[in-house]
Amino acid sequence: MIPIDDILKADIEYTDEVIRLYKKATKYLKSYTWCEKILNCWLAKGFGYILCIFSFEIKPIQNSCADDKLWVIVGDLPSAYLDQVEYKTANEALDFYCFLMDEWVEHVRKGKSLKDCYPVNVAPTKEYADMLDTRTKLIRENFLPFV
């Protein structure tokens, strides 16, 4: 993993896009009331604007029960966070991310309640479900093997 402060010095592709997604991931985490402060961040894997996986260390607000180490997945897809206790590697986190998004797609397509699904910040329409389904298939086929 590459410390976020070393991204400009690192030999990675799509540096500008990775930095934009880092800012998006930071804004996403800070949108949660349980995230008092971001302490550290590392790029676990970057595929330009399409997908980045970051490892964050945060200071949760007191008494929040929030984990202090999280994976954040951002890109041209719905953002999500997963704890690093259960998902120890970026590969495990991305694989479970796909599972969560597949579950949302299935519920939308079948007209089921989304109450127990991971929150996806788009309208639960067939069009969005189809777009997300295409992205998770792309991730499984083209990105997951390289994480």
Which runs of at least 5 residues are low in confidence (pLDDT < 50)?
none
Beta-strand content estimate? 25-35%
CA-based shape: globular
Number of strands: 5
Query: Cα-atom Rg, whole angstroms?
Result: 15 Å
Could you estimate the helical fraction of the residues in percent?
25-40%
What is the overall number of helices? 3
Order of helices and strands: EHEEEEHH
Detailed description of the structure:
The N and C termini lie close together (11 Å). The protein is of the alpha+beta class and 147 residues long. It has a 5-stranded antiparallel sheet with strand order 1-2-3-4-5, sandwiched between helices. The protein is 37% helix and 26% strand. The relative contact order is 0.13. Helix 2 packs antiparallel against helix 3. It has one domain. It contains 3 helices and 5 strands; from the N terminus they run βαββββαα.
Secondary-structure map:
Blueprint (H helix, E strand, L loop, with lengths): L1 E2 L11 H16 L4 E12 L4 E10 L8 E7 L1 E7 L6 H21 L15 H18 L4
Antiparallel strand pairs: 1-2, 2-3, 3-4, 4-5
Helix pairs in contact: 2-3
